[in-house]
Amino acid sequence: MSDKEKHHVAQQHHHGPQGFIEKYVFSLDHKVIGLQYMITSLVFLLFGFSLIMLLRWQLAWPGRPMPLIGHLLKSSMPGGVMTPDFYLQLGAMHGTIMVFLGVVPLGVGAFGNYVLPLQIGAPDMAFPRMNMMSYWTFLVGGLVMLGSFLLPEGAANSGWTSYAPLSVQATAGQTLWLIGMVFLITSSLLGSINFIVTTIQMRAKGLSFFRLPVFVWAQFVTAVLLLLAFPPLEAAAVLQLMDRLAGTSFFLPTGLAAFGQPMAVSGGGQPLLWQHLFWFLAHPEVYVLVLPAIGIIGEIIANNTRKPLFGYRAMVGSMIFLGAMSFIVWAHHMFLTGMGPVMNAFFTTTTMIISIPSVVILTTYLISLWGGSIRFTTPMLFALAFLPMFGIGGLTGLPLGLPATDIHLHDTYYVIGHFHYVVAPGTIMALFAGIYYWFPKMFGRRMDDRLGKLHFWTSATFLNGVFFPMLLYGVAGVQRRLYDPTGYAHAVPVQPLNVIMTVSAYCLAVSQIPFIYNFFNSIWNGEKVSRNPWQATTLEWAAPSPPPHGNFDSPPRVYRGPYEYSVPGVKSDFVPQFSEDGGEPEEPRRKMASLA
Amino acid sequence: MSAEAALTHGVYEPGAPEATNGKLAMWLFLASEIMLFGALFSSYIILRDAAPFWPKGWEVLNVPLATLNTVVLITSSMTMVLAYAAAQKGDERRLNGFLWATFLLACCFLVIKAFEYGSKFQHHHFPSTSVFYAVYFTLTGLHGFHVIGGMAVMLFILLGGQKGIPRPLFVSRIECLGLYWHFVDLVWIFLFPSLYLL
Fold first, then answer.
1. B11/A227 Cβ within 8 A
2. CA of A28: which chain B residue's CA is closest?
3. 20 to 30 A Cα–Cα from A425, which one of A33, A48, A549, B147?
4. Distance (Å, rounded) from C-alpha A564 to C-alpha A570?
5. What tens digit of pLDDT does each residue of A12-44 get?
6. Region of A255 on the Ramachandran plot (φ > 0 left; ψ -120 to 50 alpha; else beta)
């Protein structure tokens, strides 16, 4: 045994912190931090969802007083009808909260933190203290964002994209939005450095890069995107803060007037500069949202089809290519800003190219299903639903990537429908799948399968009920961010779609109740499970459920690739990565004649 | 040795890595910093390119003071290297001496910068005056914050904040500080000609 290994064993015997505060609040353990991220981001997700449920009432029944809640929020909903300003705040904050406080922290902060060190056989992340700081800066950033609702003039109301010059002239909520964003960027910077160093430096013996589970690859590429794409948004946030607080004109053009008055600024800035800086982050951000989901789906599909993933290397290559390409497609969000045909042609081309790796990934998953003996567990149902939902999300994006069709569709509800198909029925489905899949590892108990299936079928139905009509509504030409769409003649015939969407959204909310109950009830009352309840092959299943401080009984060694399911000639249908002998040989088959 | 110190030293790596975890993390951090300043420099180029009029840097800014500041900062980079060399040899007295020298040179840089800012304010040149001044104050200001950040870490080490950690880890941390400091220096090397001389 080398010195290093001895040292590791010594660490294993070092018991974790004992006090409540050290153990559960200011914990350095990646598992506790992962769970903190999970609970916090689920709460934020619910909050962001509640905001949009308020907003959707106004869209379905404009001007009709909202029962109950209308009376509680007197200042923003006089007489139970929300003011246009409050409507804009809800829209802006829904987007911000769902993307930056909900989905990314759940996909990266929660699953990345909890599962990645386990899957690479490490006792913890490379920098536990930095990991803890990442969570607490995230929480502060989130609270600053939410706290902006308490300002007298309310939260940010310039959309989640905060386009200048509107955002520079906006109320104080926008300043808090920017400050909150700086906290969130810092948090993700700390997290991403940690993820990359951990993956490179702390893999178990024998775990080469091409033996990594796809989930680890997905987190690794995501971390690189976060590391390199977020700083330009930080730069943009600094410039916009200067515009708002120091009176500079980075984003304010010469001769700008507001409310009929020329603005007292020097001018000379470029409003479009904000859009370039924002989308330079926000396009890679889309892949930050979806890559962890793709990783989760890979684990679940391999496990539940009981066969190796098809095209593992092609998939890894596609993820890396996807990550690299995502840095040069950003201006396809800006075809209508008058960039000119040369720029449009460039970004159209890159956009069409980036759809190739996405299709490769989706295709490898579909082919992976071929000939598998599929176990229809709750996580697998969510994973299976992810494939067509993400497919719809991707395919509806193509008309937006071509300037000719984008002219009609730009800024309509079609864009919202497309984006939500990627993120809500797509990514969030995958995140639910991940919760059901790794819950036994996290708490040593299984979530109830019947409630899980109820949650799945209702969610899948109502998510489509919300977002499919949205595509049709957008094709009819209805613009996003309209306070009262019925004021526009072309929106009146399609108004019933709005009612369908709103009712579906409320039903979707109700269908989360089984999940919430199931989650908390199973923590204490779920069926107890062993280390490897899903009969899976990756390293996290070598650790006890839940893993103790330091994770493994002894430093694991890896002998094979990540998905050795149904290996010919082996008795059991799975051979874990940590299995040295490759499993018991199969008994010779009895002759067919003896069966007959 | 605490569990964290052990972990940050790559105990768990299969093939004995050349770079420590800390050094790798520092390079990653610098990559993100390049993206931050890269975005700011790009914004500067775009704003300047689109402006109908842009003042000549040397006509409105104080080039001699900035040249002096360039010399001060490059010298501090040199003392930083000497401090790292001393740390490698385990010569604590020289390490402390050169680290203090770096710290004082950094102070010197900030004082000179403050004089520069002060004279601009006296002449009623503020960030809000024009986009040129907005770029000037924002970029040099953000660079100044980076200088202050490096100084804070130096002071922390000089006042004994890293006492009692294993020597290889300590040397590696001095190296990381050095990497950061050279980066801060490098940003100034780009800022100086692009703001003052172009």
1. no
2. B4
3. A33
4. 10
5. 445 566 778 878 888 999 999 999 999 999 999
6. left
- Asked if residue A546 has a cis previous peptide bond (ω within 30° of 0), the answer is yes
Task: Write the Ramachandran bin of A428: left for phi over 0, alpha for psi from -120 to 50, otherwise beta.
Answer: alpha
Q: Best mutation site among A33, A187, A248 for testing chain B: the one with the most B CBs within 10 Å? A: A248
Q: Residue B163 corresponds to which tokens in the numbers above?
A: 């006492």
Is B164 part of the contact surface with chain A (CB cutoff 8 Å)? no
Distance set, CA A210 to CA A315, A562, A580 (Å): 11, 9, 18
Torsions phi, psi for A585 (to 5 deg): -65, 150
In the numeric block, the tokens 């409320």 are attached to A506
Share of residues in chain A with pLDDT > 70 (%) = 95
Check if the beta carbon of residue A494 is closer than 8 Å to that of residue A55. no
Q: Return residues 265-304 of A near B (CB < 8 Å).
A: 265-266, 268-270, 273, 276-277, 280
Q: How many CB atoms lie within 10 A of CB A334?
A: 18
pTM of the predicted protein model: 0.93
DSSP-assigned letter for residue A489:
G
Coil, strand or helix: which one is A275?
helix
> How many residues would you count in chain B?
198
- DSSP strand pairing (A261-262 vs A257-258): antiparallel
When pLDDT is cut at 50, 70 and 90, the band that residue A73 belongs to is: confident
Closest chain A C-alpha to B19 CA, distance in angstroms: 9
The model's pLDDT over B114-168, given as tens digits with 9 standing for 90+, comes to: 999 999 999 999 999 999 999 999 999 999 999 999 999 999 999 988 888 888 8
* Residues of chain A with C-beta less than 8 angstroms from the C-beta of B35: 228-229, 231-232
